[in-house]
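Pipeline run #58 for the internal structure catalog. This entry was flagged by the ingest filter as a single-chain record with no existing model, so it goes straight to prediction. Upstream metadata was stripped on purpose; only the residue string is passed forward. Reviewer on rotation: M.T. Logging verbosity set to normal.
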Amino acid sequence: MSTVTAAARVMAGASLERELKFALPAGKALLARSIVAALCRPDAKYPAATVSTIYYDAPDFELLSEKINSDYLKTKVRLRWYSGPADQDAFLEIKARVGTLRHKVRVQTALAASMLNDLPLDHPTLVQVLELARPLGVRIPPRLSPALLMRYERSRFVEPVSGSRISVDVNIEVLRGHPRLPRHASPERIGSAVVEVKGAQTDLPRALYPLASLGARRAAFSKYGLAGVAMLGYVH
């Protein structure tokens, strides 16, 4: 099954949410986070955390190509875990996008964060965990395996006027890639940060317009796309 068909099946009849992304230079990230914190209230449900994510792809990097080409219809398969006072289990997530609309399903795994932090990306366990997608009724592209591991700091807020959920991701870096990637052993810091807006908004909430003065611009921002290009050796 093609990735397009898989994504279409995820989206069919799903409850969709709008997700907008605004990229800005990494050097302005902490100031941007301070501005958002001053204008919004902290998200009571989701505290700030360090997020670690393993992204999956096919042998020909089909999903990465979707990101690089900014395809209108995209699929993302990832294993994600969060920092915390206690060891937490990771979630397997399948995310599909049609333009700015997204639908995400996820299932909790039995893989602890303490194990995943150092597990080689070619370890069989990381492929076996994909079987958990079957009960979700979601078809994912075949022959997926881990492509790379990323980490970043995420702070979450709620913009009080629009009710939009705001997340600010800073210090985005690639820790390592699958051995088949040319630069798999070279950690790479991404030179951008991103502010994500989830809800009914079609643009940046008015209260957050000051972010534009820091260089924040709406963009088809993909952490996996930027990281994958770096690991393939196209950028330095």
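catalog note: The chain has one domain: 3-232.
catalog note: Residues 1-14 have pLDDT under 50 and may be disordered.
status: ready for reviewer M.T.
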